[in-house]
Specification:
This protein is of the alpha+beta class. The longest helix is centred in the C-terminal third of the chain and has 15 residues. Bound molecules: zinc ion (ZN). The site of zinc ion has 8 residues, from loops.
Amino acid sequence: MDYDSLLDKAYEALPDKSKGGERFEIPSLDAFVEGNKTIIKNFSSVLQKIRREPAHIIKFFTKEFAVPATEEGDRLVLHRKLRIELINKKFDEYVKSYVICEQCGKPDTHIEDSGHRSKMLVCEACGARTAVK
Ligand SMILES: [Zn+2]
């Protein structure tokens, strides 16, 4: 087999990326329960992936779970025993509401304060602006 046909084979083996481009995969939180606390081990590294401030997601979690949360280094400590699947389910909701662009599905977004207590999710990939809570 010559080089060109090897190359063709290699291309054929690649997954089909033509539809909608690369899909963003929501990172999952690595958490465990310790006593009465639930500790998210990879909190800061996941936040870097989704480019969000800790304060915003901490506010979301404390509201959703009705528990106090504290940042301890790279970890986030939720002061109650919680199911890990539930934490990841809520985190998925957070990412879908506050990170992923509704129009193009890309995570290249930021939140802009548009005054009057309203916020906009602004997409850097396609320019879409969506109101968020
Ligand atoms: Zn977009």
